[in-house]
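Re: duplicated header lines in exported structure tokens

Our pipeline writes sequence and tokens for each protein into one text file. With two proteins the header for the second block appears twice in some exports. Here is an export where it did not happen, for reference. First protein block:
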Amino acid sequence: MVKKIDFLAEYGKLDGARYYREVSIDGGFWQVLTDAGFIAFSNIAEFDETVFAFNFGKQEATARITVDKNLSPAGMKFKDVSGTPQKSYTVEEVDGRNFVALTLKPGYGAVLVKKG
């Protein structure tokens, strides 16, 4: 079902700790695994955060993914290194929660790294 996961081999070897991230589909309730099949986690190593997101659902979904407020402040940019062309996403803050919003087709994933 997952069509685009070959990019994971390089990032699966990262040092650090992994944390599931709460996700909100289309601005709704925040949860770790959504009913739409969207899941995300972060790899945190020292002062760096890499975000992994996957859409295992049957339809395209737009999700807000929580990021670490201290490591990824509002206004900071992530880039998706899983595809071509590489897209950029800006960290937003609403009600004290920092997040990035992205849209994924069914069976696709994204790897977001800080844009330097």
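Second protein block, exported in the same file:
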Amino acid sequence: MSWIELQALHLTLRLLAARAADARDERGGLTTEAVILTAVLAALALGAAAIIVAKVTAKANSITLE
């Protein structure tokens, strides 16, 4: 990922976190929107981790030991 992509992702995550903080209903529980937002963020984190693992594994496998 480039620096600009990381900055855009960081800004998006901050905005989503702010919306999640505001998503509590009057009884203090989470709204459906907050639960869905949490699930989306968890899926994005898993996707990012999978991409990182794949890239590191590919790079490690390309190293010759001779």
